[in-house]
Amino acid sequence: MFTLIVFTLLWTFFKSLHLIYLFQIKEYRFDRFFSFFREVGYGKVLYESGYRLPAITIRNILLVVINMVTVMLLLLLSLELPEIYYGLTAGLPFAPFIALLITMIGVTLTTPLAWITREIKIQQAKTLIHDTDITFIGITGSYGKTSVKEYLYHILNADLKVAKTPKNMNSDIGVAQALLTQIKPETTHFVVEVGAYRSGEIMKAAHYIPLKYAVLTGLGNQHLDLYGSREVLITEESSLLYQLPESGTAYINYEVPNRVELEKSLKCNVVTYGLDKKADIWLQIKHSDAEGQTAEIKLHDESLTIKTSLLGAHTLLNLLPAIAIARELKLSIKTITHAVSTLSSIPGKLKLLKGAKKSTVLDDSANTNLNGFLAAIDTIKQFPQPHKVIISQGIIELGVEKRQSYAEIIAHLEKYNIELHTTDKLFGELTQSKRVVIYNDVKQLVNAVMFSLDKKSIVLVEGKFPPNVLQTLAI
Which of 38, 92, 41, 94 is CA-nearest to residue 441? Predict the structure, then answer.
């Protein structure tokens, strides 16, 4: 019986490590954590066999120590208290729930320390940039933020001393840490990506940054489950633009749903960009295939032709505000077009890889939104391989629009001879098509896809997967 108690507590502890990892990637936020639970399913998260270890950080170390101490305390109490003893002997099936409870307690206990640390970092960042002469450029929106940031940084870096927020560090603490670590004495321009999940978070992250330019990349339904409504999402994601001074300039995607009202309400200069010729800055794709794209861009009273190895029409759209700001900052057309020609795909953003069994892999695993999924379908259809496969675990945090979004994806797939292999059963509920194949878990999915691969196959990895999946499919 005592051996059973030990086994139960060991499972509890090791499961708690994976739960700490999940809290970590959800920024230790209960709203994001439980939104993920609802989307994936409580049983699947708690009882799936695989797990990942959290990063080695001060907070994670504290959480591991709290969980370890709690497990040891339960073990000692089981020797003294019969009710604990007999409860743990029958508690093996509930070990993941015990782990969840312990981890939630740990996250709660460490939150005050994390809050104090966050406020100190933000105050330090405020002090650092007080009265600075650095030109700050803000990037916000539901999707496309990281791509625009990386493209803009690459282009400006050809002629200026530029810094940026690394990776997806776009929360209040992420922005503050980036300012503190990335700004150097020689820095003249800083590109800051700002993200949010609820009202007020963009203001919290960037209210002290003296922005000169800002980009609103697009407004979709990503994180709608957390925002609660599309109206709240639109208001929050647009709020960064109101921080611009009258002399500043806002670059707004022509397709955002509140564009007309937004233009009227802003006191700063407004420049729209898009594929529509009615936009202030627009482009026309001249050639697009699996090797890259060529496009002509109309930039106010100027025209320029760009050639890039980047894939996807949405990629060119993300280049527009970057090119426009670079031109505003007096970079020459020659410098800009050369910088664009040397751009390489961002990892996880339609990046081509060599696949197993001489196949091809298109890695779009960093994408987690409807617009990107649809754009990826349009991209993969251009490849010559007759056997086209998409693998996906679905899109999370879509709230009430999830069924509608999946219906759009299915309708898009039906135009082309493309298979969708997924673990999200909602796809199966919405269609009877044999091209949509549902699996119980990721391992089963990968094994089935691997079996069918050959040199005539291309696999689009759409959305997040465990690292070993890409390692299996790509060589």
Answer: 41
